[in-house]
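Researcher: Next sequence.
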Amino acid sequence: MEAYKDDILDMRRRGISKQEIALTLRVNSKKVASALKEWGDPFPLPASQRVEAARDEIIAARRRGETREKIAQRYGCGTDTIRRKLREWGETNQRGGRYDKAEMQRLRDAGLTCREIAKRLGCAEATVFAYTWVRESEPKEEKPVHAPVSKYEPGKRYGDYTFLEMVEARRPLWLFEHRCGWRETFTENQLKEARMA
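Model: Next structure:
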């Protein structure tokens, strides 16, 4: 087996199984297995074992606020593996525990969309929406009457939004301000879906 040592180790590094190596070299697979045990098998560990071996580093990274996606990418596994292991280790977060709600609201008030805030803070869009949506106990206003999209008047209110201006872009965008203060742009199709057109 010593004559094949470099070839066997090289094949294992490339992820080739012991059985495939044995077939390629026309030797017994048990001999390949015992030789690898003696030399040290360079084959990468399965994802769950790699994650288990890095338990302390993963827990520390999660407590620093790193996302599961980033951790999974670093250890070459899926986010489900990280999620499952964190649950096993008792490292699940309470709802909203690691997100700065005040920062979310500040960014929302500055005019950023839920998607932009979620990307910046490393959380889901739905999380941003849930923590920045202000529920008011005002009586519901009547739904606005459908009007042609091009007929919006600056300063006029349409449902929960006040139209501000048209924004120059590849496609025309309409800039509105929500009654809670944040700003949002809409395409023509989005306006129709929002029942403002």
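Model: The beta strands are 157-158, 161-167, 173-178, 183-186. The radius of gyration is 28 Å.
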